[in-house]
Amino acid sequence: MESEAIRVLVVDDHPMWRDAVARDLGEAGIDVVGTAGDGAKALRIAPAARPTLAVVDLHLPDMTGVELTADLVALPEPPRVLVLSASGAGDDVLAAVKAGATGYLVKSAGREELLDAVRRVHAGEAVYTPGLAGLVLGEYRRLSAAEQVREPGAPALTPRETEVLRLVAKGLAYKQIAQRLSISHRTVQNHVQNTLTKLHLHNRVELVRYAIDQGLDG
Q: Global pTM?
């Protein structure tokens, strides 16, 4: 999805906030293909609008943002989901991520932080408001320990793919990984995409969980 143009659907029941987000994205050259004030409209227009990313509020009049996230990622052409909510509560964050959200920002985030998150989530990175990433990773560790997931027949990764995967699991952004390994940002993306393909995973969130399952986050 990195090579695709970003096409965003903005879902928020507050018209002023919804319009402000759409305006900020548009001014940054990002195509806003639709806006909605409730989940029903979002699901109605998504198939035709074909967004590659949805910015979703958690509190909607007809359903929760968590429910909408699950419905959006279940579409035949699912967008990635960035939750943008006033809530930074741990339960809300974890529920959104478990439903399929790739990123989570609180509404106190600045314009540039939002634009950066939109671009990174579109590229498959898991992006969280500072302080929330550790919460999500901690929950994945807990789940992994409880489930004791191991994949005896997992495809073999190259040493470089494993090295990149280890740094992804530690929460480093692609640019940080590129600097750490003295390779280009595009090369990091290629390694991540190859690893996703080999492991039949869909996004960075699932990749982090897999790495933790394999004990690569230490």
A: 0.65
